[in-house]
Queue: 2 jobs
Job 1
Amino acid sequence: MFTGTMEIPKDQVLVNVSTTNNRGFTPEEVAEQCVKKIISVSNNTHPALRDQAQAFSNHIEKVVAHYMKQAIRSDRTTVYNAIKDAGHPELAELIRRL
């Protein structure tokens, strides 16, 4: 039998729930969630370093959103071509226009 222990920090948010209403998340919203998981700065950090980290975080959020948009466009191209190749050019055109 395996037994183990794990210490859970009491001052850290471990679970976060986000929802939307009648839509999926935008690339910007997902990028914000992503950056929050990657970059964190303690409240006790020197203000100058905290400001610099926040500026870096804002920049990375824009970069992640940009590449997510590119990935979405690329995936739509793949879906468009697959549907068109399957003999449904009208449906493929509707997908392309999304």
Job 2
Amino acid sequence: MNLSSNVTLAILAGQSRPDQLKNHVKGAIANGVTKEEIREILLHATIYVGLPAGSDSWRHATAALKEIGAY
């Protein structure tokens, strides 16, 4: 677990910053954050940031994981 990566992902989900989120998902994986941890971060964030921002975040995080072969 990498706390700074986790916090960054949650903040970016809340700000609806899809391009930055994709880059930080890739970085989080490189920092040792697991897919399951990313899933938990986005699930928790979606509850607070709302469904539209959360849904976009899920879609972009999934795309980022597929791009690096981690999906």
